[in-house]
Amino acid sequence: MPKLTYLRPKHKRAIEMRWLSVPYEEIAKEVGVSYDTVKSWFRAKGFLREAYNQYADDQILIRKLKDKKDRINTLNRNNRQQDAVNSLSLPIRKAFQKLSPKDRDEVMERFNELNKESQKRINTLNGTKPN
Predict the structure, then answer these.
(1) Measured distance CA(116)–CA(102) in Å, rounded
(2) Cα(27)–Cα(39) distance, rounded to whole angstroms?
(3) How many Å apart are CA 83 and CA 13, to the nearest integer?
(4) How far apart are CA 61 and CA 53, in angstroms?
(5) Residues 6+ apart with CB under 8 A from 43
(6) Among 92, 120, 118, which Cα is nearest to 107's?
(7) CA distance 97 to 123
(8) pLDDT per position as a tens digit, 4-30
(9) What single DSSP character describes residue 4?
């Protein structure tokens, strides 16, 4: 069976279209062959079956890699947000010291709520369970 890189453009196009679930009739019109020819190409031992399987495996791998890249970008974005929060810590601490004890308690209570919510989001993104 031919390798994907050695196929004619019409065969490559047929494989791409089949991956996109385009009906045989439309593939036949697009690449200029009969319906029966296209159908035979994709049968179990058809001319393009092995190349189609290789293409499908490659597309699945590409999709997984893109998903991982998106996940990494999300985690990096979250890290940058956390760095921004950390950089605010000193000014916030100075302002916090100027508050009354009652206001400090309210601020700390709200801070702890927000911290728990943030930790839940981080755990969800990381796929981990909360402690």
Answers:
(1) 21
(2) 10
(3) 47
(4) 12
(5) 49
(6) 92
(7) 31
(8) 668 899 999 999 999 999 999 999 999
(9) G
